[in-house]
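Whether sequence alone determines local backbone shape is best considered at the level of individual chains. When preparing material for the folding task, we compiled for one chain both its residues and its backbone structure tokens. No coordinates are needed to read the tokens, only the vocabulary itself. For completeness, the protein is quoted in full, as a sequence line and a line of structure tokens:
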Amino acid sequence: MKKLLAISALFFTLYSQAQTDKARIDTIKALMKRQQYLSAYKMMQTVQNDGQELIPLVVMLVTNHSLGHSDLYDKWGFKDVNPSGPEAKESVEFPVERLLAYGIQQFPKDCAMYFSSARYYSWMINQEKRYMSLEDLREIRDYFVQKTPADCYDEGYYYVVGYANSYLGKPAEAAQQLRQAVSLNPQMTTGWIELANAYVQVKDPAKAIEAGKTVWGMTKDRGLLAQASRIMGEAYELQNDNANALFRYSQADTLHRAEFFNQLSLLKFMVKTNNTGAPNALKAFIGGQGRESLHFYMDAFEVYKQYNKLSELAQFCEQYMQDWKERQNIVACTNFTLGLIYKTSNPARAKEHFRKAKELGITADRYRATRNHPVTKKAVEEAFAWIN
């Protein structure tokens, strides 16, 4: 049988040939225990048949001990820790998803294969957060639902499927599945965070706040606490408790500075409630996310349009254009935003701003559609078609 991981051109050494797969697995465990992660990876290359033992170790290695990964999760960085001297580091090809699919295909009755897959995709979801495309999220969910036997459902399965359903328009199902996840593993912090989010979506703010407080009682991780606080802010907002909503939104922004969703949530709330801090929140949002990217001006436009306050955004753009007049991309973005603002009320002025933005280098091709910014490219295309 071909070895499981035909990933590189590594040849078996005489030592590895003489070993049994059991001995190799034992060596991998020992290397990982000694923090020799690159060496553990290389030893994994030599395992020929024992996939049932190897696959859980592979998932542990990449989710707990990799230095980083490529966008496609097919290349990984590993090192051998050496406190007293130089450390061996290397970037290697390691198609983990193909290996997981192989394990399920070869050992369809072994729940450990499904547990490993759920652990890996739970980790991937937590890496990507709300930046993972909905298409990828749907594909992952459908794969788990179709492939996983009922007797192999664990907290990872319920988390992956529940998380996906939460963002794919099925929040009630998501809440039920995420409750299952945290009941099986009460220490799953991300499970409680996403359960709180599902409760917000089904308009059950009391339970969302309770879940958020659970997170605050179980971790000191600022990023996780910030997520919990932002969702609690949404829950208090549903209860029309503006004081606590503002406190939680501000807390999230303080805990995790310049984080997109925290800053956008705080800005939305301040604009909605006529908070005097809204201009500073807008300046912080644009500055924190990217002054030279039209994506974030589009976010601001949608917020101020929703609450019928485009005149305030126009004032900001006019002043921001002057403050950053030496930065061509900023002047281009503010001109384009002003074009959007005046398109209905003053078409002639809007066209002037759109033409200026085009002259300064705004193009649709610079702004591909993403999950969180699906309309920027289309807005540019429509605006420039209009002026022509």
